[in-house]
Structures are given as structure tokens and as C-alpha cells.
Design a protein that fits this description.
The chain has two domains: 215 residues, NAD(P)-binding Rossmann-like Domain (Rossmann fold, 3-Layer(aba) Sandwich); 36 residues, no CATH class. It is 48% helix and 13% strand. It contains eight helices and seven strands, in the order βαβαβαβαβαβαααβ. Strand 1, helix 1 and strand 2 form a beta-alpha-beta unit. The protein starts with 5 loop residues before the first strand and ends in a 7-residue tail after the last strand. The structure holds nicotinamide-adenine-dinucleotide.
């Protein structure tokens, strides 16, 4: 379905971004991966994407909190592929603390990566999509783009900001065959979350199953994690012709969390 398209997926060296990269590559799109990690692990992932799906895949290690590195990423994609069709703004970090104790540098990092980086990527990629007369922008937001939780002021502010920017971009690009949407996952089973389960179980003196059900999934009515593959499938749908008139939407994929 996406043969001949070029996709950039930020923060795609692990978790949700990596799954979205696989889902888009499986549909035939060439892929640009980005994010941090061990060079040998990243090269393994890059090669696996190429070998599994017969697409071209390049890696760019831009730190997306730095504007000049974002510019270099987009210029590299332009030089390598001649343009871009699909942009997935996925890179993100989290920090949890009460607002009156929230470290200023953590606030700046979260707003810088989870919100500002998406602005810069869109600002630089939209003209390339307009040139091609087609485009898809997908922002990995969160259920926290729609509802709040205590102690997550920067994350909730950034994700609500992304939801607003998504609407604006959708309106500005509406007549250019370009859509812009936000995917809003609840708890997703990523290595990051997985790593917390054993520690939390130990700290609270409860089983790992109880941690999942009573701590992590307390907000999620299905009591099941969303999987990265399900998010990849949603991203692919948003890139399909069937989704041409879905734009400006913040779409929950959260097991009913935000229905409550
Ligand atoms: P993850 O930690 O597995 O992946 C984050 C990715 O971002 C990694 O590839 C990392 O290297 C990259 N990254 C971090 N800092 C970067 C920087 N400065 N520049 C470039 N890349 C950077 O996390 P994940 O769970 O896959 O989260 C991905 C996105 O999904 C985030 O935006 C997150 O807010 C969102 N999300 C996650 C969940 C969840 O439960 N896991 C739920 C809702 C939303």
C-alpha cells in the first residue's frame, strides 16, 4: 500500500516508534529511523527492516531537542530520498513529580522533545509533502492529550499542546491532500513499562500481575495493555486512502480509559 513512499519515524529505536516503523515498512514504505541506543543494536534493527520488507532504511541519530540536528535530519532525508511522504512524531520522554518540585530542566526537556521537536519536524517536512501533493502527519500523543493525571504537568501540557497543534496543521493542510492526526495511547507494553513491573512489585510487596492490574492498569477498563502492534496498525490505517478524510483528530487507543 505504501510502496514508493518515504516515512520518517522519530524515536523509533525502541517501543512504539519501532513498531510503527515495522508496520509502515511492511506496507512497502522506505523508512528513516531515529533515536538513541547502542550503535550495534540500531544497525541490527535498521538491517532487519531492510531485509524483512525489501525497503530502504536509513538511521539518523539527531537529538531532537536540538534544532540544528533536526534540520540536518530533514536535509539528509531530502538528499537521500528526494522528499518525505509520512512523518510520525513519536519521540518522547516522561518525568513524574509534583509541580512545585518539578525540575526546571525536566520541564524544558519534555516540552522541548514532546512538543517543540514535533513543531520543527512539521515546519520542515510540510513543504516537502506539499511538493509531492500528498502527505500524512501522525503525532504519537497520549491519553494524556485528553485527560490529566497528577504529577505529570510537563507531559500533560506537551501532549495537550500536540493535540492542539494537530488541529491547526490539519486545517492549514486540508486542501493539500495532507492529513494530520494524533494517536492517543493508554498504557502500552513497551520495554520501558515492562522494566518497571518487577521493581514495582518488589517495592510494594505484591505480585507482578497485581502491579499490572492494580497499579498500571487502574485507569484502563480493559485491564489489558495496548500493544505496539495495535498502534502500528492504526498508523497504517491513517496512511491509507480510507483515512483521507480523517484529519485533525486525537484518536484514543486506550482500552476505554478516556471514555470514563
Ligand atoms: P520508549 O522509551 O521505548 O521510546 C522513546 C524513543 O524516543 C526511543 O527511541 C528514544 O531513543 C527516543 N528518544 C528519546 N530522547 C530523544 C531525543 N532527545 N531525540 C531523539 N530521540 C529520542 O518509549 P515509548 O513507550 O515507545 O514511547 C514513544 C511515544 O509514545 C512517546 O511520545 C510517549 O510519550 C508515547 N506514549 C507512550 C505510552 C506508553 O505507555 N508506553 C503511552 C502513551 C504515549
Amino acid at each position: 500500500m505504501l510502496k514508493g513512499k518515504v516515512s520518517i519515524v522519530t524515536g523509533s529505536t525502541s517501543g512504539i516508534g519501532l513498531a510503527i516503523a515495522h508496520a509502515l515498512a511492511k506496507e512497502g514504505s522506505d523508512i528513516v529511523i531515529n533515536g538513541f541506543g547502542k550503535p550495534e543494536d540500531i544497525e541490527k534493527e535498521r538491517k532487519e527492516l531492510e531485509d524483512s520488507y525489501g525497503v530502504k532504511c536509513i538511521y539518523h541519530g539527531a537529538d531532537l531537542t536540538k534544532i540544528e540536528e533536526i534540520e540536518d535530519l530533514v536535509n539528509t532525508v531530502k538528499d537521500t530520498f528526494g522528499g518525505v511522504d509520512i512523518l510520525v512524531n513519536n519521540a518522547g520522554v516522561q518525568h513524574v513529580a509534583p509541580i512545585d518540585e518539578f525540575p526546571v530542566e525536566k520541564w524544558n526537556l519534555i516540552i522541548g522533545l514532546n512538543l517543540n521537536a514535533a513543531f520543527h519536524m512539521i515546519r520542515l517536512c510540510l513543504p516537502l509533502m506539499k511538493e509531492r501533493g500528498w502527505g500524512r502527519i501522525i503525532n504519537t500523543a497520549s491519553a494524556h492529550a485528553l485527560v490529566a493525571s497528577p504529577f505529570k504537568s510537563a507531559y500533560v501540557a506537551a501532549k495537550h499542546g500536540i493535540a492542539g497543534m494537530t488541529k491547526v496543521v490539519a486545517l492549514e493542510a486540508a486542501q493539500k491532500n495532507i492529513t494530520c492526526n494524533a494517536i492517543c495511547p493508554g498504557y502500552v507494553w513497551t520495554p520501558l513499562v515492562e522494566g518497571q513491573v518487577a521493581d514495582t512489585a518488589k517495592a510494594r510487596g505484591i505480585t507482578e500481575e497485581e502491579v499490572k492490574r492494580d497499579v498500571l492498569l487502574a485507569a484502563q477498563p480493559t485491564k489489558e495493555f495496548v500493544t505496539t502492534e495495535q498502534i502500528g496498525a492504526l498508523a497504517v490505517f491513517l496512511c491509507s486512502d480510507g483515512a483521507q478524510n480523517i484529519t485533525g483528530v486525537s484518536l484514543p487507543i486506550d482500552g476505554g480509559w478516556t471514555a470514563q
